[in-house]
Design brief:
By secondary structure, the protein is α/β, with parallel strands linked by helices. The protein has 7 helices and 10 strands. It has a single domain, classed as Rossmann fold. It is 26% helix and 29% strand. The strands form 2 sheets. A 7-stranded mixed beta sheet has the order 3-2-1-7-8-10-9. It has a 3-stranded mixed beta sheet with strand order 4-6-5. The radius of gyration is 19 Å and the shape is globular.
Length: 231
């Protein structure tokens, strides 16, 4: 039986796509979008990556002193701006917000759960009161042109579902959503990977990448996960 060159090429192309999909990074979409709304900015650690892709960036960070440092770090990046707000599913509600010892990176409006099982050296240093907004109300208040931002990134330590529920009327604006999420109770009442999958699948977004970056046997794993719109 003779080889079919066309069939062989097709098989090789399919195999290459499968390998590329397996190796795909959670931020693969940055080359495909115009801008990013990044909630849970911290110190803007991704600012250079975003700048390298020439993206419009809207950073949202709730901790006032961290926000002030963030503003300094993006001062030379004209396409990036920052807003100091706590985003949840309701507006104008006061929440106790727990500041973590690792420069605020693990801070959350939720109480620590099994987070200490993976990172025993991280702890809450103090709690402050913050008033919330929804993402939808924030976009309207600040007169943000969402046509410039077609990706949403969340790193809010367990409160991601609250953000999404407060933005259901604008979720169609985002072609890609990336989030950090655990598959265990890292924070009390936190969103888990299965919750995220179900919620976004119902709204036309499918999971395309799940990169595990932390794990402990008997506890669970943390992932960077990316979802893409089916349209």
């Amino acid at each position: 039986m003779q080889n079919n060159p066309v069939g062989v090429r097709r098989l090789r192309a399919l195999a290459a796509r499968a390998v590329n999909k397996f190796r795909r990074r959670p931020d693969f979409f940055l080359s495909r979008v115009k801008g990013v709304v990044h909630i849970g900015a911290n110190l803007g650690q991704e600012r250079d990556i975003y700048a390298a892709h020439n993206l419009n960036v809207l950073w949202i960070e709730p901790i006032p002193e961290i926000f002030a440092r963030l503003v300094e770090r993006i001062a030379t990046m004209p396409k990036q701006r920052a807003i100091c707000s706590l985003v949840t599913d309701v507006a104008d509600r006061e929440y106790p917000f727990h500041i973590a010892s690792n420069e605020g990176e693990s801070s959350s409006l939720l109480e620590f759960g099994q987070h200490k099982e993976l990172w025993p050296d991280v702890f809450v240093t103090r709690t402050i009161m913050l008033k919330s907004v929804t993402l939808s109300s924030l976009i309207k208040r600040e007169r943000i042109d969402l046509s410039k931002y077609d990706a949403l990134v969340m790193d809010t330590q367990g409160s991601e579902m609250l953000i999404l529920k407060g933005a259901v009327d604008i979720l169609d604006s985002f072609r890609f959503i990336k989030t950090e999420v655990a598959d265990f109770a890292s924070y009390e009442g936190c969103c888990r990977l299965s919750d995220m999958d179900e919620f976004l699948q119902q709204r036309g977004l499918r999971r395309v990448v799940a990169h595990r970056f932390a794990h402990k046997a008997g506890v669970g794993s943390y992932f960077d996960v990316a979802y893409a719109s089916r349209t």
